[in-house]
Structure formats: C-alpha cells, structure tokens
From TrEMBL:
This is Low temperature requirement protein A. PANTHER family: BLL5714 PROTEIN (PTHR36840:SF1). InterPro entries: Low_temperature_requirement_A (IPR010640). The keyword Manganese does not apply. The chain crosses the membrane at residues 7-26, 38-59, 71-90, 156-172, 193-210, 216-236, 265-286, 298-320, 327-347, 353-372. Keywords: Membrane, Transmembrane, Transmembrane helix. The keyword Lipid metabolism does not apply. Pfam families: LtrA (PF06772).
Amino acid sequence: MEHSRHAGWLELFFDLVFVALAGQLAHSLHGDPGPADFAVFLALYLPPWWAWINLTVAANLFEDDTARRRLLMLTAMLSLAVMTVAVTEATGERSTAYALGYAGSRIVLLGLWWPSTTRPIHPGDALVPRWRPLVYCLVPAVGWAASVLVPAPWRFVIWGVLLAAEVGVLFVERSAGLPRRLHVGHLVERVGLFVIIVFGESVVGLIGSLDTEWTAAGGWVALVGFVMLAALWWSYFDFGSAAAETVLRAAAGDRAVPLARDVTAFLHFFVTAGVVAMAGGLATAVEEAGQGHGHLARGAVVALAGGLALYHTAHACIALRFGRRPLLVATWAVPGVGVPLLVIGVAGHLAPWQVVAVLTAEVVAHLLYARWVTTRRLRTRTA
C-alpha cells in the first residue's frame, strides 16, 4: 500500500521560481496581444513547464534528502530562474540565456536519474537502461546548448524538434527499469500547488491593476474577477483534483503511469496555460474599466475568454481520458467552451465589466452544476 507523502520544503522553495515565471508570462499578454503573442506565449511556456513536471516526477520517485539531491535541485532552480528572466525576450536578445537555462535543467535531470542505472528505483525493480537518461536528458541538453550557435529562426526550430523528441521517448515501448508506480497523492498535490501558483498570479494581477486604476469601475471588475477565480479554485480542488487522485489511485498495472503522464504532464499544461492567459486578460479588464473604456481590447478578451475556454477544454479531455462518458462530459464542457467563445464574438458590444460578469456567471454555474451532480450521486449511493 502506498505510504502518504507530501511536498517537501525543498520542492516548495523550488516552486518560487515559477511564481515569477507566471508573472512574466501573464505580463506578456497584458494589453492587446495579437495571434503572434499568443503563439509565442504557448511556445515559451512549454519548456519551463516540461522541466518542472520532469523534475517533479524525479522528486516523486527518488525520495532521498541527501546534500547531493538538494544541490541538484537548487541548480535546477537557478537554471529555471535564468529562463524566467529571459522568457519575455526569448525570441530576441535573451534567447541564448533561455536555451542555456533549459540545457542546465536537463543536466540536473540527468544527475537525478543516473543513480537508477546502478540501483533499482524500488526494491525488486530492474535497473533503468543507461541509454534512457542519456537520450532523454543529455542529448537534449547538448542540443539546446549548441542551438545558441545557430541563428534565428532555425534556433527555434531546433528547440521544437528537441522537445518533440523528448516527448517521443516517453511513448517508446517500455523498457525494464522504468517506473510502474508513482506516489499518486504526492503527484496530485504537486500539480495542485502549481495550479495555485497560476491562480495566485491572477489575484496579484487584479490587485496590481486596481492599485494602478483606483476607481469604483475598476474595483467592481476586480471584485467580479475575484469571484470568478474563487469559483474556479473551488471547482478545481473539490472536483477536478479530487477526481484525479481517485482515478489514478484506482488505476492498476501498466495503465497507471501512462494515465498519470497524460493527465499531469500533457493536459495540465493547457489547464495552467489557460489560467495564466486569464491573468493577463483580467488585469487589462480592471485597468480599462478604471479608465472608462467602452469595451475591452480584443486581445484582452481573447486572453481572458480564450483562456477560460482552453481551461474547460483541457478538463474535458482529462475527463474523457479518465473514461467518463462523452455525453456527460458534454453537458458541462459545451457551455464551458461555448460561452467564452460567444463572448469573444460579441465583445465589441460589451463593456469590460460585462465581459468579466458573463464569464464569471458561467464559472459559478459550472461550480453549482458540479456540486449538484456530486450531491445527487451521494444520495443515490446511500438510498
């Protein structure tokens, strides 16, 4: 039976870098971002997210609290801090720093995984084949470091190819020694803490924008926006996170690790990206309402409403991956995605506070529906 595990102090300290990263990325979507800005946002968010989830899984598997592990994780923290500083200019003059920061994170990952090639991860497991950490960690590190010698835009093509290759390794037929079980509670908690980080950036953005535009109109939008974030938090941790832990604990055998991989590593990228985008849009909505603008800039509407649509879409995919019936998922996913898309279409006729109010109404309705479904199921089971 799995023993209880929680995030350690080192992991919580490590996450502080991502507080800054979320702020940098949300700021890049402030104002009136265009299609290129959104594409760059997703492209530059993926590598640090991928580094975080890989390091989180390593911490999940290797529980030792030695000085060696601490130094490796602190080195990873520095590497990701470099990426955070560089992320807003990573397609320009800071692309070298961004690439070298990511290369550093892969070297750390190699250091974390290498001991498992000489001793099993769990008693009774086989050794991890040496080619796996070399191919998965060292080769990308060398590639990212070497990419600084290649001019743009080919440098960015190399980054994309290397990331795709890393993901591809995870789908190669399982070899002896790879983990077949994870500490589910710890993993769900770590992902939940990351979600808290991006929700936190949304709250910080609301407060900062209201401080800039200290008006009744700006305060009203900030208040309604806070209700939206509170409802999202409530529904995520009462239903999304709880359901994930239940399903992952129930998964058995070779199904468990791929299911955890798909839900945490892949689909939660879009969950968190949606919230970060919403943070940029909400901050702009507060400022534009405070300045008396008649409607919200289109880019801000896309960040806010599009971020919410992406958030709901990712959760719908998670539910389907868990085996939920498509018709039941559609009952909340269709309005969850459709209402934000409708808001984008008619935003030119809505004031900033109306945009935020309609989206908040959808989120609150989603929460109330989830609570109603849960209550009905409990009554049915006890009847």
